[in-house]
Each structure stands twice: as structure tokens, then as C-alpha cells.
Specification:
about 25% strand; binds L-homoserine; 3 domains; about 450 residues; elongated; Rossmann fold; six-stranded parallel β-sheet; about 40% helix; Alpha-Beta Plaits; eleven-stranded mixed β-sheet
Length: about 450
């Protein structure tokens, strides 16, 4: 460490929750961070439309402006932190910062999942780094683990709880037996869910994150448009209850998997065996399981959001850049783990080609031969049944009810095959309501 070296100069765009955490943690741990980075790290300039808020966050001695472009234009700034979010102005500013020769740290998963190819290419061309640890699972160093810690492995699959809002909602639904809408309102009241929670509850935020992890794990281009995205809005409390009776919990998983024909990339609610650690990740916590051929299964757990947890990831990126910015660009860690000229073109598979197991809930007429028809039809389709649960009609529909719920767990089958069988099942006169189909991941 050269004592005389002046601190690396950082400009911050967006002085919200994470920006404020970044200031606090940098100030509190500055000596240790300096000893790790080899020189000091100083946020010298902050841009935010709300300059009063930015001044309160930054304190004395930091230049506060309302125009982000003033930060990018400042020749003294070495690194720009983008904490604005979204695909709009953030994309412009990141590209302009790169063009100006600045390294970029961002927490913006939406931006990178959608425009990553363009942004990483621009950064490669210019010889600057774009670091994004904070974009996936907040404070959990999962990008570092996938990109560096696991480089020896052929990564086989990743499954993660990577959206805290939905995990909080699912935990509450299970604990209290409440339906989705009631819990969402409560989550908003407590500040766990955004006023507009669409990206969280529809699975989009998780899909952004798993898209980034998939690209790094398999060395493919970032392809959010090919991800299958399904949220938790249609999940019924009774399916959480039935799953529990069968030994499973329902989690919103981001899954990416290497299979013979290509790569699976999907977000949807999944039954997970209750005995798996992942099934026991509750509340707003995040966790990611990575399976590599050499290491086996590894698990990363922690806070996926919040001021200081996310700042922890932002600052780790600042330290990485401080250590590496003088290194020859060709010898730095590649943005997507694999060198740009050694990427794979493995295709992202359509859902019809995905192979997994399923939970089916059917409201049926409680009469002779119904179960035989259902199981016969599945047998004809080559779909093997793992377990069947049938509730007493009285319990389902009240005393004297002539309807009941049949729940079937299948073994692995191709989704296209299951879809065809479901269409036939749905057409049976004794099937009285739309069949509920959920996917099941054994994660073994
Ligand atoms: N909204 C995200 C979540 C946090 O609920 O996990 C930021 O990615």
C-alpha cells in the first residue's frame, strides 16, 4: 500500500437507501477497507434530483449536484456508482460513463439483464469494468462465488430464492394460512413490498437476477427475453397447505440448469421438499444453491436487500476495481466469467422442453371411477405418478359435498408432454374446475 497515493475518486448517481448505506459503511470501515484495497476510496461527488436528500446523505465535503452528467464529465472521477435503477436514463448514463472511461458499479439487475450485452461490449471496447455484485441477492457475494470461487467447475444448476418480497409473502401465507392479496397488503403496510410491487410479485425481478447468474454460470449471452417468468399472484393458500401435507413448501425459485439440449432459464413458484435448507429460508431472506460437478452442492444465504447489506456488495465492487484498475484489461476477471471470445451459444430451451416434476390439483366429482380415469390418462401419456392425496369430500366442500380435491405428484416428465395430458384431463366431465399445475424441484 502506498500511503501517499490519493484515494480513488468515486461519483455516486442516486442518493437513496443503498447510497446512504454506502456512505455509512465506507465511513465506518474506512481503515480496514483501505488496507484491503491498497488505497483509500472516497465518494467525492453525488448526483440526485433531490439535492437536499443527497446533502443529508453525503455530509460535508462532498460535492452535490442535481445533474448526473456533471459527475460523468468530471475528469477526477474514476468510478461511477449507478443506483438510479430502471432501464431508461440509467442505461444512457451507464453508457456515457463507460464512454468517458469510467469504471461502473451498479445494483441495476433490470438494466443488465435486458441491456447487458450492449453494456458489457461497450465496457470491453473501452477497457473499463462494470461490476454488479449488488444486482443479485443484495449482500450475498454470489457473483463473486460464481465468477471466481467456482471457476474449476462445470456448473450444473442454480436454484435461488432471490426476491425477498415474494419470499416474505409466501412465508406469511404459509404461517398464517392467509391468501395472497391479504398478505400483499400487509407487506406493503410494513414496507416489505413496494407501492408498485409488480416486478417482485410477477417474478420479473427474480428473472432479471437468474438471467445474470445463468449467463455467468454457463458463459452465454444475457438473454432476459428468453426467460420463463411466472410470479406468485395466482397462488392459492390451499395449495400451500396441500403441499405441506405432502412434505413440501412452495417457494418462488429462479432456476437455471444445463441439460443435454441447452439451458433452462425459468422463474416460477416451485414445491421444494421441506427438508431442504432452501425450503427453510423464511421471511425476506435470500438464498442461492449452486451445483458444480467438482464441488457438489453449495449454498449461499443472507440479506437480499436493504441499505447496508446492499452497500456491502457495492463496496466490495469498489475494492475490486481499486485493486484491478491499473491491471491490463485482458487480465481482469471477465464480466460474464468467460472471456468474450470464448462464450457459448447453448440455446435457452422453451418451457415445453423443460423436464421437471409436477403438482396437480384437480377438483373432481366424488364418484366411482374418477381416479382410475385420471391415473389411466396419465399412464397413457407416459407420466409416472409419485404420490396421490385425496381429501374427504366433506372436508373440501362442506358436509354432504359431492366434490373433492385430488392432488397428484408426478415424477419427472417433459413439460410439453404434461401440457398435452393436462388438456385431456381438463376435458374429462368429472373434472369440475381449472386444474392447478405447479412445478416441483427435488434439488437433490
Ligand atoms: N425488490 C427486491 C426484493 C430487492 O424484494 O428482493 C431488490 O432486488
Amino acid at each position: 500500500m502506498t500511503e501517499s497515493m490519493k484515494p480513488i475518486q468515486v461519483g455516486l448517481l442516486g442518493a437513496g437507501t443503498v447510497g446512504s448505506g454506502t456512505f455509512k459503511v465506507l465511513a465506518r470501515n474506512q481503515e480496514e477497507i483501505k488496507r484491503r484495497a491498497g488505497r483509500g476510496i472516497e465518494i467525492a461527488m453525488v448526483a440526485d434530483l433531490d439535492t437536499a436528500r443527497a446533502k443529508a446523505v453525503a455530509g460535508d465535503g462532498v460535492q452535490v449536484v442535481s445533474d448526473a452528467r456533471a459527475v460523468i464529465a468530471n475528469p477526477d472521477i474514476d468510478i461511477v456508482i449507478e443506483l438510479i435503477g430502471g432501464y431508461g436514463i440509467a442505461r444512457q448514463l451507464v453508457l456515457e460513463a463507460i464512454a468517458a472511461g469510467k469504471h461502473v458499479v451498479t445494483a441495476n439487475k433490470a438494466l443488465l439483464a435486458v441491456h447487458g450485452t450492449e453494456i458489457f461490449a461497450a465496457a470491453h471496447e473501452k477497457g473499463v469494468m462494470v461490476a454488479f455484485e449488488a444486482a443479485v441477492a443484495g449482500g450475498i457475494p454470489i457473483i463473486k462465488a460464481l465468477r471466481e470461487g467456482l471457476t474449476a467447475n462445470s456448473i450444473q444448476w442454480i436454484a435461488g430464492i432471490i426476491n425477498g418480497t415474494t419470499n416474505f409473502i409466501l412465508s406469511e401465507m404459509r404461517d398464517k394460512g392467509l391468501d395472497f392479496d391479504t398478505v400483499l397488503k400487509e407487506a406493503q403496510r410494513l414496507g416489505y413490498a413496494e407501492a408498485d410491487p409488480t416486478f417482485d410479485i410477477e417474478g420479473v425481478d427474480a428473472a432479471h437476477k437468474v438471467t445474470l447468474m445463468s449467463a455467468i454460470a454457463f458463459g452465454t449471452a444475457v438473454q432476459f427475453d428468453k426467460a420463463h417468468v411466472e410470479g406468485i399472484t395466482k397462488l392459492a393458500a390451499q395449495d400451500i397447505k396441500y403441499a405441506e401435507q405432502l412434505g413440501y413448501r412452495i417457494k418462488l425459485l429462479g432456476i437455471t440448469k444445463r441439460v443435454a439440449k441447452g439451458i433452462e432459464l425459468r422463474v416460477h413458484p416451485s414445491l421444494v421438499p421441506s427438508k431442504r435448507l432452501l425450503a427453510n429460508v423464511e421471511g425476506a431472506m435470500n438464498a442461492v444453491v449452486v451445483n458444480g460437478d467438482a464441488v457438489g452442492t453449495t449454498l449461499y444465504y443472507g440479506k437480499g436487500a436493504g441499505s447496508e447489506p446492499t452497500a456491502s456488495a457495492v463496496i466490495a465492487d469498489l475494492v475490486d476495481i481499486t485493486r484491478l484498475h491499473t491491471a491490463d484489461a485482458a487480465h481482469r476477471v471477465p464480466h460474464l466469467a468467460f472471456h468474450p471470445n470464448a462464450m457459448s451459444d447453448l440455446p435457452i430451451l422453451p418451457m415445453s422442453e423443460v423436464v421437471t416434476s409436477y403438482y396437480l390439483r384437480m377438483r373432481v366429482a366424488d364418484e366411482a371411477g374418477v381416479l382410475a380415469k385420471v391415473t389411466g390418462l396419465l399412464a397413457n401419456a407416459g407420466i409416472s405418478i409419485d404420490a396421490v392425496l385425496q381429501r374427504e369430500a366433506d372436508e373440501v366442500g362442506g358436509e354432504g359435498s359431492t366434490q373433492t380435491d385430488v392432488i397428484i405428484l408426478t415424477h419427472d416428465t417433459r413439460e410439453g408432454t404434461l401440457d398435452d395430458a393436462l388438456a385431456q384431463l381438463q376435458a374429462l366431465p368429472s373434472v369440475l374446475a381449472p386444474i392447478v399445475r405447479l412445478r416441483k424441484e427435488e434439488l437433490s
